[in-house]
Specification:
GO molecular function, one term: lyase activity
CATH class of the largest domain: Mainly Alpha
Strand order of the largest sheet: 2-1-3-4
Number of helices: 19
Order of helices and strands: HHHHHHHHHHHHEHHHHEEEHHH
Number of strands: 4
Oligomer: single chain
Protein name: 2-methylcitrate dehydratase
Family: Belongs to the PrpD family.
Strand content: 5-15%
Pfam family, one: MmgE_PrpD_N
InterPro entries: MmgE/PrpD_sf (IPR036148), MmgE/PrpD_sf_1 (IPR042183), MmgE/PrpD_sf_2 (IPR042188), MmgE_PrpD (IPR005656), MmgE_PrpD_C (IPR045337), MmgE_PrpD_N (IPR045336)
Length: 403
């Protein structure tokens, strides 16, 4: 059974130094983006929910968190909060991340292209493993925890561009912690439930591969706070030295599969802009820095951004089975001139991993206005830091309700 295979792998994991370096990088990146997202409205809406939900929502709401390309899952936004909430560290994170990467790969691109949110489908069982390892569960109990997480292993892409997307991630992380705690308390479940679930959602058990490093393929770190499908278009178009006021036409060519999650063609909010190819072109040409400020409601509603969005034409080639398939090609027309740009791998991708300085610069941007020092974020302190910076006192609301 799949749950038993994955549980045995997780229980016997012996991380290499490169694995631990990946875990430390993922922790820093995830805590930084969670702190940056702490004041988003959806985090306040979730104030009364368990801390795992709040942490995961904050880590994902800006769409600035890392991505595992082979599974199309945001591994750390689920696994870091689940592990920290259970008192775990790098080892438990790597067990969870490894299970999520492998489950996501077994689900495959067809699962994602049909509209499932793979981060949440693969995320709930993986969070159960991470929390379970943190709680000291053996392989049998880990398999039970995964089965107990199956009822929460859902989520759809229709949520993209709305509060529901980050909330789905929070629910997946919390479901894993809940399942692990139930398994630790002695609750029972049939591990074969994971096999049945995988079949129902269109996964391929033969694609499950337990070989290789803890997280096969590594993790892609985002340079821009938006869907990973926009990292390549933004980085490519931002290279052009051009007066946006002179632009009369923008033609984009890319495989159809690379724009699967980009469902908002005329966005009206910052959240929708994070899933808009048209807005990606606009901010790349308009803004010197495509950071958090470029994806606010006000930024998306700028008249000059709206004008540029109307000029975007997409020519999508058939195929493309992942977000960096093929090449991104664009031409920007200005009067009699046509500027062309082409890109295969954006900065931050596994093929162009971020340097330590790049990671620290991103963290500094995310932590601006706080007392946090990026260099001081470590596994023993991360949970405390998140509690301090995401703490919400809603006692008054509770008293008002009781009155």
């Amino acid at each position: 059974m799949i749950a038993e295979e994955l549980a045995a792998w997780a229980a016997g994991l012996n991380p290499a130094e490169a694995d631990r370096e990946l875990a430390d990088r993922a922790l820093l990146d995830t805590v930084a983006v969670a702190v940056a997202g702490r004041d988003e409205p959806v985090v306040r809406h979730a104030a009364a929910l368990p801390e795992t939900v709040r942490w995961a929502v904050a880590a994902h709401v800006l769409d600035f968190d890392d991505l595992h390309m082979e599974s199309t899952t945001h591994i750390s936004a689920v696994c870091v909060p689940a592990v920290l909430a259970a008192g775990g560290g790098a080892h438990a994170y790597l067990a969870a991340a490894g299970v999520m990467a492998r489950l996501g790969a077994a689900l495959g691109w067809p699962h994602y292209s049909r509209g499932w949110h793979a981060t949440t489908t693969a995320g709930a069982p993986a969070a159960a493993v991470g929390a379970g390892v943190a709680l000291g569960l053996d392989a049998d109990r880990l398999a039970t925890a995964m089965a107990l997480a199956v009822p929460a292993a859902g989520g759809v892409q229709r949520a993209f561009g709305t509060d529901a997307k980050s909330l789905q991630v929070g629910f997946a992380a919390e479901a894993g912690v809940r399942a692990a705690r139930l398994a630790a308390a002695g609750a029972g479940a049939d591990p074969a439930a994971l096999d049945q679930w995988l079949d129902l959602v269109g996964g391929d058990p033969k694609a499950l591969d337990l070989s290789g490093p803890a997280v096969p393929g590594g993790l892609a770190v985002k340079i821009y706070p938006c869907c990973y499908a926009l990292q390549r278009p933004i980085s490519a178009l931002a290279e052009l030295d051009i007066d946006p006021a002179q632009v009369s036409r923008i033609v984009i060519r890319t495989p159809a599969g690379t724009v699967t999650p980009l469902t908002h063609h005329r966005p009206d909010t910052g959240l929708q802009g994070k899933f808009s190819l048209e807005y990606a072109a606009a901010t790349a040409l308009l803004d010197d820095h495509q950071g958090i400020a470029a994806f606010t409601d006000e930024a998306v509603r700028r008249p000059e951004a709206r004008r540029l969005m109307e000029l975007v034409e997409s020519e999508l080639a058939p195929g493309g089975d992942h977000l960096l398939a093929g090449e991104f090609d664009a031409e920007v027309h200005t009067g009699d001139d046509v500027l062309r740009v082409r890109s295969e791998f954006p900065p931050g991708s596994p093929q162009r991993p971020p340097t330590r300085d790049e990671l620290l610069r991103k963290a500094a941007d995310c932590l601006a206005g706080t007392s946090l020092d990026a260099e001081s974020i470590g596994w023993p302190s991360a949970g405390r830091l998140l509690r301090e910076h995401l703490r919400t006192d809603h006692t008054g609301e509770e008293h008002a309700w009781r009155d």
